[in-house]
Amino acid sequence: MAPDGDADLGDLDVSMFRVSGCDACGGILKPDVVFFGETVPKTRVEAAMAALLASDALLVCGSSLMVYSGYRFCRAAAEADLPMAAVNLGATRADDLLDLKVEAACQSILPALVDVLGC
Under 8 Å CB-to-CB from 43, ≥6 apart: which residues? Predict the structure, then answer.
């Protein structure tokens, strides 16, 4: 695995790989995700922003926030005076906005957080 979660295929020959097409419309089949470089659908951003603004705080887990699609929520939380924390190895784009930063691997911190909160 690469640091961004993508697989590093090294010298593997992928020249024969073909993306499956849809039998109904001929379009490319892909999972319901937003790939790097794609635009997040407006309705999804609006729903996430509404949920953020209705929350008590923002917790960022395992993201450098270098992509604006994630960082925008930190900026909105800061503008709304919501407390903000992050669990991440290394710097994030929002370090100057955070109220709390834990430099650790998520898999080592989150189970303890669940225990402390009684979730």
Answer: none
- With pLDDT > 70 as the criterion, what percentage of the chain qualifies? 94
pLDDT digits (tens, 9 = 90+) for 33-66: 887 778 899 999 999 999 999 999 999 999 999 9
Residues 6+ apart with CB under 8 A from 99: 83, 84, 85
Q: 77 exposed, middle or buried (CB, 10 Å; 0-12, 13-18, 19+)? A: buried
Distance (Å, whole) CA 98 – CA 3: 22
Q: Flag whether pLDDT at 104 surpasses 90.
A: yes
Please give the full DSSP string across the chain, using - where no structure is assigned. Answer: --TTS----TT---TT--PPBPTTT-PBP--SS--TTSPPPHHHHHHHHHHHHTSS-EEEES----SHHHHHHHHHHHHTT--EEEE-SS--TTTTT-SEEE-S-HHHHHHHHHHHHT-
Tokens of 113: 């957080």
